[in-house]
Amino acid sequence: QVVVPEEVFFTVAAAGILENLLVLIAVVRNKNLHLPMYFFICSLAISDMLGSLYKTLENIFIILCEMGYLTCRGDFEKKLDDAMDFMFILSLLGSIFSLLAIAADRYITIFYALRYHNIMTLRRALVILAIIWTFCAGSSIAIALFSYEAATVIPFTILFPLMMFFILCLYVHMFLLARTHAKKIASLATSTVHQRTNMRGAITLTIFLGVFLCCWAPFVLHILLVKFCPHNPYCACYMSIFHVNGTLIMCNAIIDPMIFAFRSPELRSTFKKMFC
Amino acid sequence: MSALRLISNRTSQQALSNSDYTWEYEYYEYGPVSFEGLKAHKYSIVIGFWVGLAVFVIFMFFVLTLLTKTGAPHQDNAEPSEKRFRMNSFVTDFGRPLESERVFSRQIAEETQSLFHFCINEVVHLDKAKQSQKGPGLESNIHFQEVPRSSGMFEEGLNGLTKFNIPNFVNTEQNSSLGEDDLLISEPPVILESKSVMQSSHQTLD
After folding, report:
1. pLDDT over 90 at B156, yes or no
2. What pTM value is reported for the model?
3. How far, in Å, CA of A140 to CA of A84, rounded?
4. CATH of segment(s) A6-270
């Protein structure tokens, strides 16, 4: 087992939880931020927080087990473990669906700009979030209960790349449209700015999806391997870096607010007001 | 012993729960697995996975940059619009187009600063609207229709979208809005200069 040092683990987890909590507090306190878009960002922050919380609790649990404070075979512990599994799958599904909701919201904002306020009212956004979280909770209970079956693992792992692909398509379409608009404006001015701005758009989009992919894919692969080849030595070697995968998920919780929430000047100014 | 085996078999299948079974996981999971006689390196899956992921991300990045580079070249778009401006200033009153073009370029600057990506549909819609209105307007006040036509679009876009409070989103729009704002702020002085040069050339011609 490749072990991540405890201090690193807890620092990363605490940083993730703190950051997402700050985002939530900022959105709640500032009335200007009561917009559908920020609600979706909040939902992403909540799912990141759940993920970090899960990892922290699990680690505390392991430490307590090793120190012998808890009997690690009791029924209560098993139930606690199931509850934590549920929380973790909820966090993963919540992240995926929140990203999807953010992408769809931005898509509607660009392509239906004039009707955006009729299509995406606050109430509808809250309803959508409620539906998403109910669905995630339901399916994560199902997955946690039936995690032994191959029938749950395979759809779960297929859902992951499918969602990523869909989100990628949405963003690419938006990106292409932004490029045609940039061309229209640049046709009235000098157009040398093009290459750099388009490169920047490509970089931003790659960072978005790349971060999500790099942070969650190792774990999804781990689940697949545990299901299908637990005794193969190659698979066992991969599974030994499970703690690193967990740390990566918490890094995702830290990076996500930076690339979504902190891009908004309004949110940044709310932070400054909170601390100064 | 058999009871313990049963527990270990179950834990091997519990994909996500390895917290309180971790210490058992270590003892019973890796016991039967022997690392002898491996043809490839022990960590081959790990290395292969990460290399594959890196390749995929880089590939995606290149696909995206390629998408940005394909399409009509920029010079074709620039020239006909400049010719259109010259035609407008020929036909119209010379005092007013100068102002209106300056207002136009300022509006371009404002528009691109705050509403870069969102005027797309507006431009399309208002374009169609204005084209239908263009006919009767042509005889009377040409400069009012031609040159501020697009500035009118942008102005209406500005007014319309400030209601939507979308500028919040625009500033957070991650598709290089910050970069484009920075770059396009430097554009209006260029526009102003080019327009004033054109104006002076038309005045000398006339």
Report:
1. no
2. 0.62
3. 11
4. 1.20.1070.10
